[in-house]
């Protein structure tokens, strides 16, 4: 997927460099990383007005920083064992959901 904003375009440009160099690679993309404030970051966002549950179009797809580390570990372990690792892995909640629905997971 091509990013529309500065950050997305910059990430994609870096990915293109990796793809162009040849050889084996795995691009591990993380959605909405959170963790600085713990697993309750989304609740804090709602409390502080950064996640407006009334907005019908407010979507989220989150992954905790600890889960990112586990994903990296998994990919490296598979690679070291000689298993086939996909060129692109997208790691996140598992589904893009409305912000209000994601809160029920907490």
Structure explained in plain terms:
- By secondary structure, this protein is of the alpha/beta class.
- The chain is built from 4 helices and 6 strands.
- A two-stranded parallel sheet has the order 1-5. The chain has a two-stranded parallel ribbon with strand order 2-4. It has a two-stranded antiparallel sheet with strand order 3-6.
- The longest helix has 16 residues.
- The two termini are 30 Å apart.
Summarize this structure as a short list of keywords or feature phrases:
106 residues; alpha/beta; two-stranded parallel ribbon
Gyration radius, to the nearest Å? 16 Å
Tell me the number of helical segments per DSSP (H or I, 4 or more residues long). Answer: 4
Low-confidence parts lasting 5 or more residues at pLDDT below 50?
none
Please report which band the strand proportion falls in: under 5%, 5-15%, 15-25%, 25-35%, 35-45% or over 45%: 15-25%
What's the count of strands? 6
C-alpha geometry: globular
Mean pLDDT: 79
